[in-house]
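Appendix C: a fully annotated inverse folding record. The material below is reproduced so that readers can follow the format used throughout the book. The structure is listed first as tokens, followed by the designed sequence.
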């Protein structure tokens, strides 16, 4: 046994007691037994924290239990606990900032979470908590400015355990790609504003080569075709993008127009090579469809 599904323990009245630690079979059994005894259950932790608002360990344990299912309550507990922590207790300050960031992420406030992670790394880099920042910050990769998260991971990676460096580097590679895509999108916006079909065509072709921003690239290529008076090389870009998107019939139609209007013999041969490929795939799909209908 290497893990367990999510298990939620409730009492006879259906009141939530907590979730056992599923990190290992031993931890699962131990924490389940503790919950049955009423130790570290949600009611017990809430009661303990109400009696001693400065009990940091109870607050942390309660937030850990509540984080995924009740992030609003978890966030409120963190904010109530923070004033009770001495500024000189840097490890405790960092732990609460870390938990606050996790709460913000669960609540969908990715930018706020990133800001808190940045604070931990910049102000409390020598704490153990700072070493865990990169492990959770990678989960923001789809939701925040890629360049900003890249900067954080570059700083936070040396603080993390080396066994996690490969995963961190994988996320950094993804963020570099996102940053490059964002730059292309900004360049495309400028080209659209200026009606610069040459730049739009180059951006659309770059997206085709890298298989990026497929929907946007089709829009940019269509605009470039319109503003270039349907220049053959621009039509070729659009046809390739249509083919890449699986719109093979449309690709054939556009490529035929490109071949018919290209006057340079060398360029025309290149366009014809693409057309042959598009037509072959189109005919294959037609035959397969006919066979499936029999």
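Designed amino acids, in order:
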């Amino acid at each position: 046994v290497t893990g367990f599904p999510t298990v939620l323990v409730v009492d006879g009245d259906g009141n939530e007691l907590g979730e056992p630690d599923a990190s290992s079979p031993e931890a699962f059994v131990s924490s389940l037994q503790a919950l049955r005894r009423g130790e570290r259950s949600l009611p017990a932790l809430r009661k303990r924290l109400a009696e001693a608002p400065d009990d940091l360990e109870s607050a942390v344990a309660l937030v850990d239990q509540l984080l995924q299912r009740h992030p609003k309550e978890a966030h409120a507990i963190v904010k109530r606990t923070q004033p009770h922590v001495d500024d000189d207790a840097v490890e405790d300050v960092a732990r609460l900032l870390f938990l606050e960031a996790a709460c913000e992420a669960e609540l969908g406030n990715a930018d706020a979470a990133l800001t808190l992670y940045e604070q931990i790394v910049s102000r409390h880099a020598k704490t153990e908590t700072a070493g865990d920042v990169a492990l959770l910050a990678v989960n923001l990769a789809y939701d925040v400015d890629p360049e900003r998260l890249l900067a954080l991971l570059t700083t936070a990676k040396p603080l993390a355990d080396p066994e996690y460096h490969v995963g961190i580097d994988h996320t950094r590679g993804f963020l570099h790609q996102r940053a490059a895509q964002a730059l292309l999108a900004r360049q495309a916006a400028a080209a659209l504003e200026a009606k610069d079909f040459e730049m739009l065509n180059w951006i659309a072709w770059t997206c085709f080569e890298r298989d990026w921003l497929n929907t946007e690239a089709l829009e940019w290529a269509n605009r470039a075709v319109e503003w270039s008076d349907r220049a053959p090389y621009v039509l070729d870009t659009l046809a390739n993008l249509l083919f890449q998107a699986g719109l093979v019939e449309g690709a054939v139609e556009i490529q035929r127009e490109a071949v018919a209007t290209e006057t340079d013999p060398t360029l025309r041969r290149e366009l014809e090579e693409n057309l042959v490929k598009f037509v072959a795939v189109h005919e294959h799909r037609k035959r397969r469809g006919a066979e499936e209908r029999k």
